[in-house]
């Protein structure tokens, strides 16, 4: 019997998790047994993410060693992120207006979730969510605190400067660069070991979700789920498909390259779970280390296409549910507010829900409407995480092509290797 690949193992774990979850619906004992397994896997992933991001970025920036080049890459990257996320927000608004997921819902038969913790986070975050405050937050007062809190933006800012410093001191910086190259190699070895635990983590996470959630709770909000999933599929295949075509590749090629990461991101609803492997895969696909190490971690803050689509649909959904239709002018205002809040809330726990709460408050819409969505948020989180991951992988290719440093031969060779592996399996 041939050994199953990681993608197949995760897919089997996903199916088994759904079956077990359905069999033990609302069984607290099974939840208590499985929850620690899923939590341990997520903790393992979080444990390795920042060391890899820091080491990879230092090695890449020190290799480039040119502040002008890094500055140009940063400017192009932020511009691309802003354009694509704005398109994602607009696509979400269009879908919500076309399909009306919130119209005709009987709220009396629906369960409400607790959104108080998100409201508190929203209040605390909105106080510092202005553009100037976000800019100030970019520069850490204590880089070790930023690292400890898993705050990517200030960590990236310091790491880029540190990498440039290593390059600037010449021979004296070589031992430091060698140290971080060693860390990077060691952390990729750790990543490969951690990923062997992925099927167990996925099984536990999915089982617990289905046990808590069940199928019955989905029915009243089935239209919302279908609209969100359908819009995400449209965005990836059409919008990102056009961008990929312009960049000289295709989304279907990218699907083949990232099948394991896509399944893992979907089943864990954690973009962090695939960050190390995503950087490694895109480098093998032909993107230089300097691009992948900068673009992908930055995209985890600024390029969340799936989250943008969800946020715009959720805001319109609440307005429709309460019979409060928004005019074109109000929807343009909503789009502008989401453009700002989605960036200002980056890195906040439960960011997508917090962004929607903040936006609803700014638009004078009932915050309680979101309480009906919280119960199925895990299902929506799975697809938006997958789209976020896919969008950031494409961003690395686009930036590599834009900078004219994409290795086409390396890309062709890697695709051929994948084809051979598929045939062997």
From TrEMBL:
One Gene Ontology biological process: dicarboxylic acid transport
Keywords, comma-separated and alphabetical: Cell membrane, Membrane, Symport, Transmembrane, Transmembrane helix, Transport
SUPFAM superfamilies, A to Z: Proton glutamate symport protein
InterPro entries noted in UniProt: Na-dicarboxylate_symporter (IPR001991), Na-dicarboxylate_symporter_CS (IPR018107), Na:dicarbo_symporter_sf (IPR036458)
Record flagged with keyword Transit peptide: no
UniProt-listed Gene3D superfamilies: Sodium:dicarboxylate symporter (1.10.3860.10)
Segments traversing the membrane: 40-65, 77-99, 152-170, 197-218, 224-244, 313-339, 351-374
Pfam families xref list: SDF
Molecular function via GO: symporter activity
Name of the protein described by the UniProt record: Glutamate:protein symporter
Organism: Bacillus safensis
